[in-house]
Amino acid sequence: MSFKLKKGFTLIELLIVIAILGTLAVVVLIALNPVQQLARTRDAGRRSTVSQLGHAVEARATGNNGVYVTAAAAWVTGLVNAGEIASVPQNPTYSAPGVGSHPQGADCSVNAEGDFCYSTSAAPASRAIVFARLESAAENEKCGASQAAWAVYSTANSGAGIFCNDGSAPAVPGVGGYTGSTWIQ
């Protein structure tokens, strides 16, 4: 009687390898946290767009004797009509901790076009801000407990940054208070 030695893996060996690969896949998935990766990606886009809109507002003011675009519901359309930007950008829907999922512009009390917020000092506007709420845990952790992170372009500061406050829309510098608020560059 002759026995042939069969080459290959046993069922037990295959099951052990599959279990190890499955465990590694779960560990990698948890470590990468794809939901937060996507939130950080959207936040990077928001920060970039807020900065670009802020620069467009500054450019428009330069050509308009230092007077900023009127704080109205169609403020971005005014920038498009003036040739400062090509089209109205759209801010994606987001889900912020403790807020749930809603359109970005829901954080604006007034002047949300393209779901980006805009506010100016009293007429004639000599200062302005463009802002949007950030959603990623990484950005919000930069702020204190129970504070919200905002991407803000401030003409008074001549630049963009992250602004932390109690969650209410940021105020124009020099108009309203910055009590309990922090700029993070």
TrEMBL record:
Keyword flag Membrane: yes
Protein's UniProt keywords contain Mitochondrion: no
Keywords, comma-separated and alphabetical: Membrane, Transmembrane, Transmembrane helix
Alphabetized Pfam families for the sequence: N_methyl (PF07963)
Transmembrane feature ranges: 12-32
NCBIfam families in the cross-refs: IV_pilin_GFxxxE (TIGR02532)
Protein name: Type II secretion system protein GspG C-terminal domain-containing protein
Organism phylogeny: Bacteria, Candidatus Woeseibacteriota
